[in-house]
Every structure is written in C-alpha cells, then in structure tokens.
Specification:
Protein name: D-lactate dehydrogenase
Family: Belongs to the D-isomer specific 2-hydroxyacid dehydrogenase family.
Structural class: alpha/beta
Keywords: NAD, Oxidoreductase
Strand content: 15-25%
Helix content: 25-40%
Oligomer: single chain
Number of helices: 13
Distance between the termini: 21 Å
GO molecular function: D-lactate dehydrogenase (NAD+) activity; NAD binding
CATH architecture of the largest domain: 3-Layer(aba) Sandwich
Organism: Lacticaseibacillus manihotivorans DSM 13343 = JCM 12514
Radius of gyration: 21 Å
Length: about 325
C-alpha cells in the first residue's frame, strides 16, 4: 500500500519508518498540511494520513485524489464530514491514543495552579525572593474536583484524583464504566457550585460549545480553578477573561485555545500570532497556557501514527474500521 502522510513532525518520523519497514508498505512523509494545493502530492498514493488543527474543507474532499483519510488525532470538528461522504472519502480518527498522557497533564496543571506556581515564578523573575515565598498553596487531596466528561481521559483523571484523596464530582449524564472509581454524580449546576477545580474532558461537538460560559462562571465558587485539555470551543474565552479580571476565578490552565485554528492559519500565512485574547491571558500570572501539547508523549505519538496507518490498511482491505467517522 502507498500512503502519503501530511503534517509530519520530526518526532513522528521514526514511528512511520518502523511501521513501513515492519508492514512492507510505502509511506511518503510531508511536513506540509493537507490542503487543496498539497493534496496533489498524493496523486500516486492509495491513502493519506494527517495531523492538523486547520480545516479540512469541502473543496479539499472534492480534489482529494484518494478514497481514504486517517486523522492522527482525536478531534474532528475541523473536518467537513458531510463533504467527505459526498465525495466518497472514508475518514478515521484516533480517539484514545494515550488517555494517561492528557490525564497526567491535567493533574500537573491542577497542582501548578494550586501551588500558585505562576505568581511564584513571576516574583522570582522580578528578583523579588521575599514576595515569591508568600504565595501559600492548597492541597489537591483537600479539594473537590468536578470532572466534566468521563470517557477514557476523564476516567484516567478520576483514577489519579482518587489516589490523591480528592472528592470527585461528575455530571450524572454519563457514568464511568470502571467500577473501581470513586465519584459522586450530580447535576451540572451543582458540580459547578461545589467544585474547587473543574476539569474538562468532553468532545467539541455543538452541544458542548461554550459549555462554560458567563452563566456557568457565575455559578462557580470564588477562586475556582478551571482546566481545559479538551477542545477549544468548550470555553467562552471572553467570558472567562471577564471573570479572571474580576477575581471571581482563581486561575485557569488552557491547552486548547478557542481561536487556535484561526491563529495557526494566520501564523502560517503571516508569520504572526497576533491574538489580543491570547496576549491578555499570557500576561496573567494565574493563567497557564500551553500550545495543545497535553497529548504529547512518546507513547501517544507512536500510538497516533500506528493506529492511523493500521486503519488505512484495514480500509484498503475492505475490513471494518471501528474508528471510522464516515
């Protein structure tokens, strides 16, 4: 089988090469994102695999010269699936490449916010050692943590929180399948009102758009902390900033920024990441920002590459693909 891989990073290359050697398939590697122009690089291929947060528009599927596309990531809200179906392109994704990677990142973010690491570092950079010693922290085991979303990642988060001894609340819509986990299911408004920390692990489908908005923030405890390692659109950034400025919220950790797709397109086209909302968040010591890297571990990268490629082989062989989106 001949596969063209787009959006390839250097860390993925060894896994692509190892898979190609093991399976005796040809894989061409391109650093470019897949778009209406670069898709012609796959003219001689049987399938493509991609990793990107920029859009997969209808025009791309109209011009795509192959019938199979495997995403090397879990998010697919940037894919025009209706257009893919219309042009008979089968699309798969990798929904659970490493739940532990994202869960550990979320817990790390909680601990950093609880120990006020941002203000401490700011004071140290200002050479104010005495001020740096005044930021008293809180302990995770003494907190109530609201976990919104109890799929693979949410359950991994709950398991770690149980080890710390934290009280865990979840929304009562979807209960975890793991019977060993300790948690209390409550309605969402109650979760928001009682939680010291709220961590998001939900998909970015329309029903979750701006799930945490001005109304939700008003329900939260003073000083509440928010962790978003989920999808960019689940947080209303403008409302979030309002409640950070007012002091209602104690802090936030954002790994998936609401406007990241547009900002990355601007960065690629103009070499300029000029977003005033991002800049204001970046200026706040009680805000932790990261560039969509919660997933980014060696285990996750290997799984993303191998699972995406395996799904393309299954497509080509006429076998069922459990992770198909179309």
């Amino acid at each position: 089988m001949h596969i063209s891989a787009f959006g390839v990073r250097g860390d993925e290359v060894p896994y692509f090469q190892a898979w190609a050697a093991r399976t005796e398939n040809q894989v061409d590697l391109y650093g470019d994102y897949l778009n209406v122009d670069t898709c012609q690089l796959a003219a001689d291929a049987d399938a493509v695999t991609c990793f990107q947060t920029v859009p997969y528009p209808a025009e791309l599927f109209k011009k795509l010269p192959v019938p199979y596309l495997a995403l090397r990531n879990a998010g697919f809200e940037n894919v025009d699936l209706a257009a893919a179906r219309e042009h008979h392109v089968r699309v798969s994704y990798v929904p659970a490449y490493s739940p532990s990677a994202i869960a550990e990142f979320a817990i790390m973010s909680m601990l950093a916010l609880l120990r006020q690491n941002g203000p401490v570092q700011t004071a140290l950079h200002d050479h104010d050692y005495r001020l740096a010693k005044t930021f008293m922290g809180r302990e995770l085991g003494a907190c109530t943590v609201g976990v919104i979303g109890t799929g693979h990642i949410g359950q991994a988060v709950i398991k770690i929180l149980n080890g710390f001894g934290a009280r865990v609340l979840i929304t009562d819509a979807h209960l975890p399948k793991d019977p060993s986990l300790a948690y209390t299911p409550v309605p969402l408004p109650q979760l928001l009102a009682q939680s010291d920390i709220i961590t998001l692990h939900i998909p970015g489908d329309p029903s979750n758009h701006h799930l945490l908005n001005d109304e939700a923030f008003r329900l939260m405890k003073p000083g509440a902390l928010i962790i978003n390692t989920a999808r960019p659109n689940v947080l209303d950034t403008k409302a979030l900033l309002h409640h950070l400025r007012s002091g209602k919220l104690g802090g936030v950790a954002i790994d998936t920024f609401e406007h990241e797709a547009d900002d990355l397109l601007q960065l690629a086209e103009d070499h300029d990441f000029n977003d005033p909302l991002w800049e204001e968040l970046l200026s706040m010591p009680n805000v932790l920002l990261s560039p969509h890297i919660a997933y980014y571990t060696d285990v996750a990268v290997r799984n993303m590459v191998e699972q995406a490629l395996d799904s393309l082989v299954a497509f080509d062989a006429g076998q069922p693909v459990a992770t198909e989106l179309t």
